[in-house]
Amino acid sequence: MTALHENAADLLSHGAGDAPHELLRFATAGSVDDGKSTLVGRLLHDTKSVLADTLAAVERASLAKGFDGADLALLTDGLRAEREQGITIDVAYRYFTTATRSFILADTPGHVQYTRNMVTGASTAELALVLVDARHGVVEQTRRHAAAAALLGVRHVALAVNKMDLVGFDEAVFTAIRDEFVALAATLGVQDVVAIPLSALQGDNVVDRSGRTPWYDGPTLLQHLEAVPVGEDPAAEPFRFPVQYVIRPQTEEHPDHRGYAGRVAHGVVRVGDPVVVLPSGRTTTVAAIDGLDGPLLEAFAPQSVSLRLTDDVDISRGDLIAASDDAATASPDLEGDVCVLSERAIAAGDRVLLRHGTRTVRARVQSVVSRLDLETLQASPYDQALVLNDIGRITLRLAEPVAADDYSRLRRTGAFLLVDDQEGSTLAAGMAVVARCTED
C-alpha cells in the first residue's frame, strides 16, 4: 500500500507535459459528527476533483436517503459499512491537484476506537487538519488528535471550526475555540496553528471566501493548504541511507560491482563523501552514485539510488549508511514514545520485533515508563500495560544494536514499529526519544 501511495504521489507531482507540482501530504482528524466527511467531500467537489459520473451517483444515493441535494459526505465514506453507519472507520487516501499544488489527503476516523488509524494517516503528513464542531468546542478527542499529531512531528495544524452556520457565524464562539486550541497546541509544542471558521455543508471559507464572516480576514482552507510551507531542505539535514538491497550483477563487464540500493531518507550525499556504515561502525567513502538514468554526482532525499563504496565493507539489507561526521550511535537500548495500534497490550517483559527503516531485530520491552494523560496533557509515571490507543513511553532492549535518531530531529530514521513476533501484526508505532549505549 505504501508503494501505491508513492506511485500516486509521483503521478500527482508530474503531470503530463507540466512542470512538477509541489506536493502536500495532510491528514484530517476530528471527533464524531464534526462534519469531517462533508468537509473532505466539499473540498473535492469545489476544487472540481470529482468525476461527473461519481457526482451523479452521489446525487442518486443522496436522493434515496431523502437528502436535499448532494450529500458530499458520500464522496469519502466509501466502504459499505461506513455508508450504512454514517461514520468513517478506515483511512482513505484522496488525491487532488490545483493549479498551485498537488495533495495527498489521508481521511482518518473520528471515533476514539480508531485513533490508531489517525496515527497511521498522520505518520507521513506535514499538516494535520483538525475539525471542531462550533457548538461543542474542543473535546477530549480533539486533544487526543492534537497530542498524536504533535508526537508524530506534524509541523503545521489547520483548525477548521466547522458548522459555524449553526451558531449564527458568531465571532465570539470562533475566537474562544481558536484561543483554547492554540493554547493546547502550544502546550504540546506545536506553534504553527491557523484557525479557519467555516461551514462544510454550505461551503463557507472552504474554497471560496464567505460573505457571512466579514470579521474574518484570514485565508480560506484551500488558500492555506496551497500556501503552507512543504518539505525539508535536504542540505540542512545529515545524510541517512537505509540499505534495501545489495546489487551484485557478477557480469564479465563488471565482475567486482557491488552496489547498495535504497532511498535517501535524509540529507544529501556526493561522490567522495566520507560515510559510516551502522551498526558495524566501519568508515569508507562514496565512490559512485547510480541513478535510474545513469551515474550521478549527488543524490538527496527522497531519491532512490544505488551507492558504490571505495572499500569492500560487509553490508547487508537493514544496515544504515550515514554521514561520518554526524551519525546516530548504534545501541542495544532504545527509548521511545509509542501509540498502541493493536488489541494486544504492550507490557514490560513482552518479546516483540522492532522494525527500524529496513532493519528488523528481536526486542524485549524492558519497562513502561509513563502514559500520556489526555486531560492534563502530561506524561504521568506508569508501570502497567499500555492498551489500544494509549500513548506512552517505553524502554526496549534489542537483540542487535540499532542506529535510531531522535524522532524530533529526523523523522524517518527516528520512527520504528513494534511487531508481534508470532503473528507479524503491527502492535505499536514508535518515535525514538533517546538512543543510548548502556551495557549490563
Number of helices: 9
- The CATH topology of the largest domain is Rossmann fold
**First-to-last CA distance:** 40 Å
The helix content, as a percent range, equals 10-25%
Task: Indicate the structural class.
Answer: alpha+beta
**CATH H-level homologous superfamily name of the largest domain:** P-loop containing nucleotide triphosphate hydrolases
CATH architectural designation of the largest domain? 3-Layer(aba) Sandwich
Spatially, the strands of the biggest sheet line up as: 2-3-1-4-5-6
InterPro entries: CysN_GTP-bd, CysN_II, CysN_NoDQ_III, G_TR_CS, GTP-eEF1A_C, P-loop_NTPase, SO4_adenylTrfase_lsu, T_Tr_GTP-bd_dom
EC number: 2.7.7.4
Protein name: sulfate adenylyltransferase
GO molecular function: nucleotidyltransferase activity
Walk me through this protein's architecture.
Residues 21-235 form the Tr-type G domain. Its EC number is 2.7.7.4. One of its GO terms (molecular function) is nucleotidyltransferase activity. InterPro entries: CysN_GTP-bd (IPR041757), CysN_II (IPR044138), CysN_NoDQ_III (IPR044139), G_TR_CS (IPR031157), GTP-eEF1A_C (IPR054696), P-loop_NTPase (IPR027417), SO4_adenylTrfase_lsu (IPR011779), T_Tr_GTP-bd_dom (IPR000795). Keywords: ATP-binding, GTP-binding, Nucleotide-binding, Nucleotidyltransferase, Transferase. The protein is of the alpha+beta class. The protein folds into three domains: 2-227, P-loop containing nucleotide triphosphate hydrolases (Rossmann fold), CATH 3.40.50.300; 234-323, Translation factors (Elongation Factor Tu (Ef-tu), domain 3); 331-436, Elongation Factor Tu (Ef-tu), domain 3. 20% of the residues lie in helices and 35% in strands. The chain is built from nine helices and 22 strands. It has a six-stranded mixed beta sheet, with helices on both faces. Strands 7-8-14-11-10-15 form a six-stranded antiparallel barrel. Strands 16-20-18-17-21-22 form a six-stranded antiparallel beta barrel. Strand 11 and strand 12 (294-296) form a beta hairpin. Helix 5 (115-122) packs parallel to helix 6. Mean pLDDT is 83; it is low at 1-20, 79-89 and 435-440.
